[in-house]
Write a structure and sequence with these properties.
Blueprint: E1 2-8, E2 11-17, H1 25-52, E3 58-65, E4 68-76, H2 92-97, E5 101-103, H3 118-129
Length: about 130
């Protein structure tokens, strides 16, 4: 599972399901706990390291498993970095100032399949048939 966090002035203000096109039963059931675990790791470890490096504004991607959380990459805090379930244009104040908000897909996203590469659509269709 991957998540995208938005950090401004060294504060994690927003966190989103990275692959926001698909509904996940696991996220619906465990999203709050996952969000809390990511916040805990950010606040106890990542925040200070980034501050010491002189980096205060960034978009950070996390990988989550029940036993470990990893940082996948750090991206610029710019509109050119995908906002996932947040809108840079409509929600810039939230992304920059909080309060912290966690978002996941809560209902099916119709048309999401059309955004997949054709080869992945075929795989998706095979899995659904099982």
């Amino acid at each position: 599972m991957e998540f995208r966090g938005f950090v401004k002035n060294n504060q994690l203000n927003a966190l989103s399901q990275y692959n926001h096109l698909f509904l996940s039963d696991n996220l619906l059931e465990n999203g709050k706990e996952i969000s809390n675990q990511i916040l805990k790791v950010f606040n106890s470890d990542i925040q200070e390291k980034m501050k010491q490096a002189g980096i205060h504004d960034y978009v950070i991607d996390f990988a989550y498993t029940p036993t470990k959380i990893w940082v996948i990459e750090i991206n610029p805090f710019l509109e050119t970095t995908d906002g996932a379930l947040f809108s840079w244009q409509k929600e810039r104040d939230l992304l920059e100032n909080g309060p912290f908000e966690f978002r996941i897909r809560e209902k099916k996203s119709f048309g999401a399949k059309s955004q997949l590469a054709i080869s992945w659509r075929e795989v998706f269709d095979q899995v659904i048939e099982l």
